[in-house]
Design brief:
The protein has 503 residues and is mainly α. Among the domains are: 49 residues; 91 residues, Arc Repressor Mutant, subunit A. Helices cover 44% and strands 10% of the residues. The protein is built from 20 helices and 13 strands. The chain has a 3-stranded antiparallel sheet. A two-stranded parallel sheet has the order 1-2. α16 crosses α18, α17 packs across α19 and α18 crosses α20. The relative contact order is 0.08. The model has no long low-confidence stretch (mean pLDDT 95).
């Protein structure tokens, strides 16, 4: 690429960062890194009425946890700062007035009541009110009023907005990296407000001005902004600026495949839609987060990359470096991507196997008071034996409790299957064998017990099933001989005796 790639993720601090926003940030990050570019975080807080305390820091914390930190933004490499739009508001009015001078925008003095009247009047006639070329000369604005009247209103301090003057009878030919060529007739476009009566710009003006001043080369954003593309192209043209390249990402759909994924879907179906837990500062309502639910950031990133993007191969497991190398915007789909909560669990299970056992053991120990006095090295050995069966660290206790405490009851279904009339007698014999083993290694335990089974011509299941129940309380868990080695000779014999007593 001829220019150094600069992309931005520009969320609004109106609440926690939705999983769809994380996907947008990820695709911007991957594209920037693929082309040795810069990933910028800009906070678009022009709508102060919707500002939520703590949301900005949440966004930063979420990106850092995901492993996709921004290169440039608030308090970081502030080459083009400030990076909050509310701190840049002194810039925007001059650009809006520049558009008025060039004939591409105008002052509009219509009151909210007047606009409501026109909407209701059109609705009564079965029409839709659109403020544009077909009626703007009939409304209260600097196009319909004389220059003297317009100036008088401005000097009198009348409320006004600045609207873009959308052209009449033109065909716009737009290009999107993902969607290809797009054709739009200007007659269907409304004259969008660029500057509000409260002295703040709308998203459209601030977005374009900031992207230009920050030298953004590619705008990668969600599909919901596709209807704004025509206005944004026209604004670049009106200012005489070179437009960046645009790419609009597909929606993330509900698990059913119908409709956009929302927090309500997560609440209903039992999965998070936010990367980190969020506590609403007003209602104190707590929303679940992937981090707190036990997901690894690598798993979430790998999963999100496949929501709308396809590498063109059968490979599904990608670390971040591999994603950067493989990522191409041209391989992003146009159609929506269905969110599959089971698939992200599949990814998490995979990344669980790649985690360091010592680190998993530390985390496991913190979760359970029963492990407080257990050597973490022993816990790490246990984790190595059972993590293949787990998806989350929170699964570990159910999978491994018998390594730390003796079972206090036995699975009824397993007991009916394993216990026979002579089971108590056989288990007593096995305990005698175990008592004679001096070197209680896995190999020695296995050799002695299998040897006794062969010599006494006893069915293998007659011994191994009740023995497993004695050790773990049911017919589950890793290799029986490994369990006996781990808990030790004394504890093994004690548990078998407890089963004999129960029988």
């Amino acid at each position: 690429m001829s220019k150094k790639v600069r992309v931005r993720f520009a969320p609004s601090p109106t609440g926690p960062l939705h999983i769809g926003g994380v996907r947008t940030a990820l695709f911007n990050y991957l594209f920037a890194k693929k082309h040795n570019g810069t990933f910028i975080l800009r906070i678009e807080d022009t709508d102060q009425n919707r500002y939520v305390e703590g949301a900005e820091q949440y966004i930063i914390d979420a990106l850092n946890w995901c492993g996709i930190p921004f290169d440039e933004g608030i308090n970081k490499n502030e080459k083009f700062g400030p990076y909050r739009q509310s701190e840049r508001k002194h810039l925007y009015k001059a650009y809006a007035e520049e558009l008025i001078k060039s004939g591409n925008a105008y002052y509009a003095f219509d009151t909210a009541e007047e606009l409501d009247f026109h909407r209701a009047d059109h609705e009564a006639k079965g029409k839709t009110f659109i403020y544009n070329w077909h009626n703007r000369l009939k409304l209260s604005n600097s196009l319909s009023l004389s220059a003297e009247k317009t100036q008088a209103k401005l000097e009198a301090g009348d409320d006004y907005v600045i609207r873009f003057k959308s052209p009449q009878d033109e065909t716009l030919h737009l290009t999107d990296i993902i969607r290809g060529d797009i054709k739009i007739e200007t007659n269907v476009l409304d004259d969008k407000v660029l500057f509000k009566s409260d002295g703040m710009p709308t998203y459209h003006l601030a977005n374009i001005v900031d992207d230009h001043l920050m030298e953004i080369t590619h705008v990668i954003r969600g599909e919901e902004w596709l209807p704004s593309l025509a206005l944004h192209y026209q604004l670049y043209k009106a200012f005489g600026w070179e437009a960046p390249e645009f790419a609009h990402l597909p929606l993330i759909l509900k698990p059913t495949g119908k409709g956009k994924l929302s927090k309500r879907d997560g609440d209903k179906l039992g999965f998070p839609v936010f990367p980190l837990q969020w506590t609403d500062p007003v209602t104190e309502e707590i929303s679940r987060g992937y981090k707190e639910d036990g997901y690894f950031p690598d798993a979430m990133i790998n999963f999100l990359a496949f929501l709308g993007w396809n590498p063109g191969t059968e490979q599904e497991i990608f670390n971040l470096e591999e994603l950067i190398a493989a990522f191409e915007l041209e391989r992003v789909n146009k159609s929506g991507a269905r969110f599959d909560p089971d698939k992200i669990k599949w990814f998490n299970h995979h990344y669980m196997q790649e985690q360091n056992n010592d680190e998993l053991a530390e985390a496991f120990k913190k979760e359970h008071s029963e492990l407080a006095d257990i050597d973490v090295n022993y816990i790490a050995l246990v984790v190595g034996m059972i993590k293949e069966r787990g998806t989350f660290i929170s699964d570990f206790w159910e999978l491994s409790a018998f390594f730390f405490v003796a079972p206090n009851c036995y699975d009824e279904k397993a007991s009916k299957k394993a216990f026979k009339e002579n089971t108590g007698e056989l288990m007593a014999s096995i305990n005698d064998v175990l008592d004679t083993i001096t070197d209680f290694s896995i190999d020695n335990i296995q050799t002695e017990i299998k040897g006794w089974i062969t010599v006494n011509n006893v069915g293998f299941g007659q011994i191994m099933m009740p023995l497993r129940i004695a050790l773990v309380g049911g017919l589950h868990g890793p290799d029986v001989f490994e369990i006996m080695f781990m808990i030790g000779k004394t504890e093994t014999i004690k548990r078998v005796k407890k089963l004999i007593t129960k029988l």
